[in-house]
Amino acid sequence: MSPPEDNAASGDGGLPRTITFGGDNTGQGQIHTLRTFPSRDPHTAQQAQAGAQEKAAPDQSGNAGLESGAKGKEEKAKAKNVDITEHMLSLEEICAKFSVKVNPDRPQESYGLGSAQAADLLAANGPNALTPPKKKSSFHKFLLCLSSLFNLMLIAAGILEYILLAIDYKDNKANIYMGAILIAVAFINAGVEWWQQRKSENTLAALLKMIPAKTHVIRDAKLDSIQAAELVVGDVVFLRIGDKIPADCYVFSSSDLKVDNSSLTGESEPQERTPGNTMKNPLEATNMVFNGTLVVSGEAYTVVVRTGDNTVLGQIAGMTAGEEKAESPLNHEIALFVRIIATVAIFTAAIFFVAGMCLYKDFPFAINFAIGTFVAWVPEGLPATVTMLLTIAAKRMAAENVLVKDLQGVETLGAITLLATDKTGTLTRNQMTVTNIWANGRLYSATRGHSDMGEPITDAGVSGVREIIAISTLCRSVKFDRTDVPMDKRQLLGDATESGLVRFAGARIGDEFDEMLPSHPKVFEVPFNSANKWMLSVHKLAHDTGALTLLIKGAPERILRLCTTILYQGKVVPLTDAHTKQYDETYEFMASRGHRVLAFAQLQLDGSEYPEDYVFSKKTENYPKAGYTFVGLSSLEDPPKHGVREAIGRCRSAGIQVMMVTGDHPLTAEAIGRKINLVIGETREGVAHRTGRPVEDIGEDEYDAMVIHGEKIADMTERDWELVFRKPEVIFARTSPKNKLEIVTQAQSIGHICGVTGDGVNDSPALKKADLGIAMNESGSDVSKEAASMILLDDNFASIVKGIEEGRLIFANLKKSIRYTVSHSTPEVIPQILYIIVPLPPMLTSIMILCIDLGFEIMAALTYAWEPAESKNGLMKLPPRKPVTMRSIAQLRAYNARHPPPPIDPETGKPAKYKWHVRLAQAIKAPFGRVWWQDRLEKKDGEILVDGDLLSWAYLEAGLISTISLVLTFFVILNKHHISPRQARLMAKDTSKTYFNKDSPDYTYNGRTFTGTDQFYALNEARTGLLFSIYILQVFNLFICKARFRLPFGKFMFRNTRTFYGFGGGLVLLAIVTYIPPLNSVFNSSYKSIPLYWLIAVGFGFFLLAYATGRMLFLRKSRPIKWNNTIEGLHMHPTIWSTRHTTKSIDLDV
Predict the structure, then answer these.
(1) In which band, very low, low, confident or very high, does the pLDDT at 245 lie, cut at 50, 70 and 90?
(2) How far apart are the first and last CA of the chain?
């Protein structure tokens, strides 16, 4: 069926961007257009809307302030064609076009190409290989990691430290180390992220095999085996069962040829290929076979018409390369947080620079103070914490055989709101399996499951079943790669349906299977073909009246037509209307479940007419064509993979909409969907059938499920798409790669965060376009693995659920970690402010701040990577953190309306980029406009990484409580040395002298004299107490931040044993910098500090715990947690068939 052409229906926010794919130089290709729509993310709305204006803005090259795309015309000239037209040519035209000589009557005697001619073509056109995707150099990738906003902020802070050093070298000597450490942290953080990406890429490279190694070709009238990469157009290729097709080929001679096109079209049934064709769609042409597909039956002689990137496989890969990857939700939110921190830091620094100038009229002092305040706001340890949390989560997923190519993909999987999944090979095993048998007047079940109908087969020797097993064993063309292993370990080469029958027979009769064919050899065979729709064989199988038995299997209506008797209740009896009625009812039952149905019959040949040495002939057809005995029916299906049903049920329970997008028949897709929890409710047609009303009279609120044919997608309006995405149960059937891509684009246009799973080449454009593409390793194509962000190494769909739970957990733990980490910013910043405003002695030095941020804080924050969920299934009962609702869709459309897209560059056809000075001016001007504030103040649904609640707790509530505690501790310890707060203020305010250094002048107050040494050690001991106060309060905060849904008490607080290692390591670090003499000089700490004064912080810690408990109780009342509604009808109780799965351990070290 030809892929439908898209109309020009507009998408949200402007006209759709259209990409046109034309024919080749023969001029016979059809024209197809592919629509893409504005992005669902507001932060990328301008770019997406600009793409939507490609048609509307034909020439805007004169716009001032725009960067022109110099390579645009060249890129357009290299646009790939998706259409192939050779299937419409005759063999004579093919031979003339490619200058090749073939003999269609005796193909083995074809001349093919000459060796010299092939060598010239290879030199001119290049090897038959897919061009690897363009990859950035390792250095470029490292720079991209380094250029993240977090790292840039650290580098900026490091540079500012050196600016301080230049302003006042004497008082800022420590900045030599401070600046170097901050910049080094940025480089180390980028290095960790780069290394993780490189490791994933190396693992993927080890998995990919882009082209088959050898192929059989006729050149110079000789059959030879050559490297597939050496094939050229015009080569005559000989294909046989089991071959992976090396290029797009034109079939001019075949014998029972069938190919598995599931990787290209999603069609699970093998497709017959013969010379001659009447189909316009090349993927349905009967005379074409395509690169990357498999020969499952027969053999053929073909002419290569496309190689490498020009094949359908290469062209779909080109479509994939054209899709740009959207920024991950986590990247966007972290960038937003960094902007907030940077804005606050710059704003605060500017204010206190002005204050310093007004109070002291000293520019070096004021700029020194302003830069110090800016650096104090920077959470130096947070970038490394985020990277390490994601890296550790990626390693955990690798242990579950999930390869994460991009660290942010771990969290993105937890954020998805819609999962669009392929059927064949992803949800199902891509392995036909016998489900039911009707024989001897009884219905049997060949599997065990909650929805299976019929009696279980307990005895393979029962009448009827015995005959079907014998016919499946003897009347077959399937071959094995080896026979010295059990049936379930063998690779079967042949038709998928016939392979299913053979597996069933082998499992039922065991070792007897391999003995049957040698004991009853085949003397004659008529292979299956599209005209007869049956396979017939005659065997030396003796009976009472002769030595030969004819066996036949095939399409039920064809087989029944040949029969006059039936095996019924153990006897051969005449076939009556009653038997036919029972046959019709059984056939309808099997077919209605989306199963493929085959019929079986036999005829015991009379020895007087057909002696043992009788010679049968296909040409004269001297075999009986009627009078057969009908044995029974067998239904087969491509069954769901183990664990898929429970996995989809858990996804739906987690508020994720799961859609099936397949190239298979709608009935088959719906039947599978109902088995795997994807479809529970009624479709519109189902309601009409049940109520006896016309389909048009059924209201939208009367049904929950939809099965949409791919042909309808092109004509769907914006209203139609809205109705589709409102339904909880949706299946798209008979879809093309273009349809799949549009489904993803339409979902993203209304705000969905899309995950797409697939294993075929046809899935790769959608995998690349999606927010998270998930490919299969074992059954997946190389192109799909390249396009995806995540790969299931063992093809276990159930791993996705673990990934979603892991993604949600990592988001929750990231939020807890950030909440904990930034809580110490206020206690670090306020002492800097007090130092200049009050003034007071400097409570914290820069090296102490670094000890906090990159010392004990980072140790404790990293322990959140191992933090378990607060409850076993709590995370999967919450809605996605950015749910798509009618309100969110309206907000997104309003946002798009407020932000007109940039014009289209006429040379590149892409949104034009403004020059840097224009973008800077726009950024400076934006906060003074109404739209900017409207965007910021608009209340949105869902949850973000850094929200108001987190900022309030970290900077205001916990931050201020901690600040009060440490200031009190600081003054208590100073008072121990007889320095009161008033006295400390007066000493700091005296600008004529510098106090609290070893060489400071003596200070006399109330008759007591404080030498410089006394002042120095008193201040350092107070600083040490302050340092330990921050540590103690952060230990309490570490446990408080663990609780999100529960009160911060109970066993769950202590399940993560690494928490104790984290704050224990921090305590050891503080002890080292405090009590080891060489280090206490560097860190301005005092080994005379005693733990008695730490009790102040302990008391405030308990107060913080009590405050957090009261706060949580208040929030429970004012903002109760919204859990997902229970979905009635989900089958979540595992059976032996839905849980039996052996997970292989795959070594990821490359």
Answers:
(1) very high
(2) 44
120: helix, strand or coil? helix
- Tokens linked to 830: 């306020």
Tens digit of each residue's pLDDT (9 = 90 or more) over 668-696: 888 889 989 999 999 999 999 899 999 99
Q: How many CB atoms lie within 10 A of CB 39?
A: 26
Q: 136-140, 778-782, 1096-1100 — which one is most confidently predicted on average? A: 1096-1100
Of 6, 406, 422, 794, the catalytic one is 422
Which residue in this structure is represented by tokens 């109070």?
359
Of 679-688, 781-790, 1086-1095, minimum mean pLDDT range: 781-790
Q: What is d(CA 474, CA 517) in angstroms, rounded to the nearest whole number?
A: 6
DSSP string of 1001-1049, one letter each residue: PPEEETTEEE-HHHHHHHHHHHHHHHHHHHHHHHHHHHHHTT-SSS-S-
pLDDT tens per residue, range 488-528: 788 787 777 888 999 999 999 988 998 999 999 999 999 88
Are 962 and 1030 spatial neighbours (Cβ–Cβ below 8 Å)? yes
d(CA 513, CA 536): 19
- In three-state secondary structure terms, 641 is coil
> Can you read off the two tokens belonging to residue 856?
């004990």
Mapping DSSP onto H, E and C, the string for 379-390 reads CCCHHHHHHHHH
Angle CA(946)–CA(947)–CA(952) in degrees, nearest 5? 105
pLDDT (mean) for 952-967? 93
Identity of residue 908: T
**Type of residue found at 327:** E
**Could you identify the residue written with the tokens 């102040």?**
1096
Query: What local confidence, expressed as pLDDT, does residue 448 receive?
Result: 67
Is residue 697 part of the annotated active site? The answer reads no
Q: Is 1026 exposed, middle or buried (0-12, 13-18, 19+ CB in 10 A)?
A: buried
Q: Tell me: the pLDDT tens digits for 181-199? A: 888 888 888 887 788 777 7
- If pLDDT is split at 50, 70 and 90, which confidence band does 747 have? very high
Question: Taking a C-beta distance cutoff of 8 angstroms, is the pair 627, 603 a contact?
Answer: yes
Beta bridge partners of 616: none
- The DSSP annotation for 132-165 comes to PPP---HHHHHHHHHTSHHHHHHHHHHHHHHHHH
Instruction: Name the residue among 477, 692, 731 with its Cα closest to residue 594.
Output: 731
Secondary structure (H, E, C), 967-1011? HHHHHHHHHHCCCCHHHHHHHHHCCCCCCCCCCCCCEEECCEEEC
Q: b/e for 378-393, b at 16 or more Cβ within 10 A?
A: bbbbbbbbbbbbbbbb
Q: State the sign of the Cα–Cα–Cα–Cα dihedral 453, 454, 457, 460.
A: negative
Mean pLDDT of the chain: 82
Contact 820, 864 (CB under 8 A): yes
Q: What is the DSSP letter of 542?
A: -
What beta strand segments (E) does 768-897 contain? 772-776, 790-792
Among 1051, 1142, 827, 902, CA closest to 44: 902
The average pLDDT across 523-536 equals 85
Q: Which amino acid is at 1037?
A: N
Distance of alpha carbon 541 from alpha carbon 524, whole angstroms? 13
Q: What is the mean pLDDT of residues 435-448?
A: 89
What residues contact 69, with CB distance under 8 A and at least 6 apart? 905, 907, 908, 910, 912
d(C-alpha 1004, C-alpha 869), whole Å: 59
Nearest to 391, CA basis, from 167, 540, 193, 218: 193
* Residue 530 binned pLDDT confidence (cut-offs 50, 70, 90): low
DSSP letter assigned to residue 454: S
32, 885 contact by CB (below 8 A): no
Instruction: Tell me the CB-side half-sphere exposure of residue 212, using CA atoms within 13 A.
Output: 19
pLDDT tens digit sequence for 733-746: 888 777 888 999 99
